[in-house]
Amino acid sequence: MKSLFSGSMAVAVAPPLEKPARSETMWAQTSRRLKKSNTAVFGLVVVVFLVLVAIFADVIAPYSPTANNPNATFEAPSSKHLLGTDQLGRDMMSRIVHGSRVSLTIGLSSVVLAIFVGVPLGVIAGFYGGKFDTLIMRAMDVILSFPVILLAIIIMVMFTPTDGFWGIVKVTGAVAIVRVPIYARLVRGSVLSIKEKEYIEACRALGQRDPLVLIRHILPNCLAPIIVAGTLSVATAIIVEASLSFLGVGVQPPTPSWGWDLKANVAWIQESPWLALCPGFAIFITVLSFNLFGDGLRDALDPRLK
Question: How many domains does the chain have?
Fold first, then answer.
């Protein structure tokens, strides 16, 4: 407190008020924590790189991924063909680059589709309970009772294998179906916990309808676990897609697929090891990157770290 003297009269001057510090939002805290994790940042950088490769595959690939050249079969890596050519003379780099588009499209699309189906089922089961909960959760238990790959194979053999766009759509649907229970069970558990909070009871006491309570108060609090599960599920979806293609029931040739290229070239691994190693490494680095980023995101969103 300062005083200004003018004659015998003193006037007290209060110090300037300091602005209250802004509270950091959850997403700002998550971003700050995520930047501290070197492995998560590495995973994110690789994921962004792979997405860009998939988007600009037509520009990056030096040749058509489906163009055969009988005069250039089993060529070793060179300046003309950076990753060599396969038994049909197709450029392996072009197939790997275009294969990233297929794998990421199926991986991301199947996860989004599984979330759009699984989240509403989990919300209904957790919020309303009773017969809805019993019916939905028992159906999810039936799906979970099958091994993931086996169930995906069963779904795929119900349809005629095709290449191109519809082949990708069928694989995406099969992978999405086997991932739906993950989100249904996850969201159900979150809703069961959140709906008992006092502010939810207050909303109901004020006469807010159930859809409004779900959209404004319950679903936003379920976003963090859904995002983490979705990131990790992309890696699983890519493995499932590659496995289906490797077994011959996934994306059909000549559509470029890492799993199919691995299957087609594993027989030549002694004579031309790069033909099998390239698609295998592409699967490995993609799955690893999504897992590293997903693990870092989970740690950053963990409320115990607050």
Answer: 1
**What pLDDT band is residue 63 in, cutting at 50, 70 and 90?**
very high
**Tokens matching residue 189:** 């558990």
The helix or strand, by DSSP H or E, that contains position 9, with its residue range, turns out to be: strand 9-13
In a domain, 78, yes or no: no
d(CA 237, CA 244): 11
* pLDDT tens digits for range 82-130: 999 999 999 999 999 999 999 999 999 999 999 999 999 999 999 888 8
88: which residues sit within 8 A by CB, 6+ positions away?
68, 69, 70, 73
Residue 111 lies in a domain: yes
* DSSP line for 197-235: SHHHHHHHHTT--HHHHIIIIIGGGGHHHHHHHHHHHHH
Any domain includes 159: yes
Tokens (6 digits) for 80: 């003309």
CA–CA distances in Å: residue 200 to residues 129, 212, 216: 16, 11, 10
Q: Taking a C-beta distance cutoff of 8 angstroms, is the pair 112, 81 a contact?
A: no
Report the interhelical angle of 223-247 vs 92-128 (nearest 10°): 130
Cis peptide bond upstream of 16, omega within 30: no
Residue 182: inside a domain: yes
Domain housing 117: 104-298
Task: Characterise 223 by phi-psi region: left (phi > 0), alpha (psi -120 to 50), beta (else).
Answer: alpha
Whether the per-residue pLDDT at 300 is higher than 60: the answer is yes
What is the Cα–Cα distance from 294 to 232, expressed in whole angstroms? Answer: 5
